[in-house]
Amino acid sequence: MSVEFSLLAAFLVGLMGGVHCIGMCGGIVGALTFGLPQPQSRARLFGFQLSYNVGRIASYTLGGVLLGGLSGLADNLLVIHQYQSILQVIAGLFMLAMGLYITGWWTGLRHIESGGRLLWRHIEPLGRRLMPVTRPGQALLLGMLWGWLPCGLVYSVLIWSISTGSALEGGLLMLSFGLGTLPNLLLMGMFAAALQKFVRYPLVRYGAGGLVMLFGVVTLYLAWQPLPA
Description:
- The chain has 229 residues and is mainly alpha-helical.
- It has one domain (3-223).
- 79% of the residues lie in helices and 0% in strands.
- It starts with a helix and ends in a 6-residue tail after the last helix.
- The mean pLDDT is 76.
């Protein structure tokens, strides 16, 4: 599977998965938005929202760098590159699971969040100390903490980053995913009520999840193709 295909797939997973992100993170974004000193100009409000999301995506990217780097180290030490196709199969299966998760037809990915909740118990109190947010720097730091919020969708893409076998590619994969989530969550901060109503439509969720599952099928197909001589 080419790097370009993986990055495009990750971006679209983030973009389509933003339907899920709005449902899960909408309350957080709304609390951060309405917690700002009022009144706020739309430009200043956008600046705070952008800071939150830059911090969040930075944490995603760091996670991808760490897991991709660890898998690359294992590749060098244990010579597991022969099993790269197996890792791609796992990535494809997780994409199918993510699509089902977005549609609401299967919520098994929530079990992945259990381990993250243990870490979040230690991170969440740090976020409280940054509230209320009055400066963009605070918003950036809060976003970096928010990036570790237990989320089956995010954690699944992190597991996908393991299949890259590279710190650089793992980081780029998570960066692409994070950028895909950006439009939805930026708009969520500016037009919360309208977007929440939009994503409640079943066809929106089904279309988003179906496209993610399609990428999963393509990934599985490519994983089973014979390696070039």
